[in-house]
Here is the input.
Amino acid sequence: MRRVVVVVALVLAGYGLRLAMRSPAPQPVRTPEVVGASAIERGHAVYARYGCSICHGPDGKGGFSNPNAETDGKVPGITYVAEGYTRPELRKKILDGLATVGKKDPNGPRPPYRMPGWAGQMSDADVADLVEYLWSLYPKTEKSKWR
Here is the structure.
C-alpha cells in the first residue's frame, strides 16, 4: 500500500512539474490602435498587424523568395500597386487574396507562397485604411507621370 502511495505521489509530482515547465500559450500580436491618425498612418498599422511585411517587406518592396513564381521567384513588391489597380480593385484583391501564383517554368513546381484572402478577418475600416497606405507607397516623383 505504501508503495502505491509513493508511486502515485511521484507521478503527480512529475505531472505538476511538467505543467509548470510548459511554455505559455501563444498570444496574438496586436499593435495598438492609432487614435487620431490619418488613414495612411492607420493603414501602416494594419499592414504591420496583419503581417503583410513578412512577405512584402517593411517598406513594401517585396523580395521574399517564392521559388518558381512568375515574378522572378520572389513575392512582388507593392510600391506600384497604384499603377495596376484602382482602389476598389485593390480592396477586392486584399479581401479575395490570390488563389494561385503563376509559374516561371510551366514544368517546374508550383510556387509555395500565395497571398491569403482577408475577407471575414479584416474589418471594412482596416481594409480602407490599408488601401490608402498601399496607395501612398507609390513613389512621389512618379505620380505626376501616371496621374
In short: Residues 33 and 42 are 8 Å apart (CA to CA). The two ends are 87 Å apart (CA to CA).
